[in-house]
Amino acid sequence: MSEGAELSLSETRDSGWHRYRWRILAIGFAVVVSGLLTGGLMLGGSTRTPHAAAAVVRPPLAPPQPLDPVALEVRRAIAANAAVRQGSAKGRLVALTFDDGPGPYTAAVVTELRRLKAPATFFEVGEMIPAYRTLVANMSRWGFAIADHTWSHPQLTGLPSAKVTNQLIWTQHLITKITGKPVQFMRPPYGALSPRVRTLAGRQGLVTTLWSIDTADWTRPGVATIVARALAARAGEIILLHDGGGIRSQTVAAIPTIVRRLRARGFHLVTLPQLLALAPPRFHR
Ligand SMILES: [Zn+2]
After folding, report:
1. What is the structure's pLDDT at 59?
2. Catalytic residue among 51, 242, 243, 284
3. Mind listing the pLDDT tens digit for each residue in 182-234?
4. How far, in Å, is the centroid of ligand 1 from the Cα of 36?
5. Is residue 79 part of a domain?
6. Which residues of the chain fall short of a pLDDT of 50?
7. Residues 26, 79: one domain?
8. Which of 25, 147, 201, 284 has the most CB atoms at less than 10 Å from its CB?
9. Exposed (0-12), middle (13-18) or buried (19+): which is 33, by Cβ within 10 Å?
10. How far apart are CA 189 and CA 82, in angstroms?
11. pLDDT 10s digits, 95-121
12. Do 90 and 196 sit in the same domain of this protein?
């Protein structure tokens, strides 16, 4: 190979490098320029935005807030002096409700429900709550609805009105104090109802709530029987179970199967406030 050939090769290499260098410089320049432009536009945008916003004429009043559907249905039920037994079939919703807690089995019930991501409502006996304050606060924080099952579980229909009111408001106030949330539902012990009891509950802003499916789990009929009774539920129904008032190991054991089989049938589990808002109930007097 001649020197000239080598030279020309090296020249070629050099001129190629020069071309690349220029190309690289040109690309670098373009990147810097576009960066500046973008930055400038962004800066321009951020400096112009307040002026543009200031030019917008704001309405003198904030738009009306949408009315809370739960509060609306609560008012409707109270106005009708009615008791809620079940929701409508809309949306294939089912509500699991647990009475007579909090107690030694409540944490186990809650653990099962949380593991299954299954919402539920707990009707609590006021005098039991102080021993389980942290659990009750957590249950509310975890999305369970906490409701009023009176202070000491008496038959309300046999009590004078002042005592009925106290039974309800003591529990209502304690739950609100612990959870920071209003209590809108009460269930009378033994399902014992009268128009007077409903009126007294309504005066405290409480909807009287019963159930449409009774598992009678408190009689401890066996896990399979509790499951079978719960699975009789149709869309919109309220299922009665117990987390307190005695040994509830059968109820705890029944929960996973109840939840899975209800879901397998296309039902969605909800709390009572959700049932009331999404599938407004028929009233039962
Ligand atoms: Zn009860």
Report:
1. 62
2. 242
3. 999 999 999 999 999 999 999 999 999 999 999 999 999 999 999 999 999 99
4. 72
5. yes
6. 1-15, 17, 24, 31-33, 35-50
7. no
8. 201
9. exposed
10. 17
11. 999 999 999 999 999 999 999 999 999
12. yes
Pair 176, 257 in one domain: yes
Please report where in the chains the tokens 């653990």 appear, as a residue. 111
Residue where the block lists tokens 């959700």: 274
- Identified catalytic residue from 51, 99, 100, 148: 99
Residues 206 and 77 in one domain: yes
Within its chain, how far is the Cα of 69 from the centroid? Answer: 14
Ligand 1 midpoint to CA 101 (Å): 9
Q: Hey, is 17 helix, strand or coil?
A: helix
DSSP H or E run through 55: helix 3-55
> pTM for the complete prediction?
0.77
27 and 102 in a single domain? The answer is no
Q: How far is CA 276 from CA 89, 95, 113, 114, in A?
A: 12, 10, 21, 22
Does 47 fall in a domain?
yes
Q: How many domains does the chain have?
A: 2
Q: Ligand 1 centre and the CA of 209: distance in Å?
A: 12
> Is 242 one of the annotated active-site residues of the chain?
yes
Residues 213, 237: contact at Cβ < 8 Å?
yes
Task: Please report the DSSP string for 251-280 in residue order.
Answer: HHHHHHHHHHHHHHTT-EEE-HHHHHHHSP
Which domain, by its residues, includes 238? 69-284
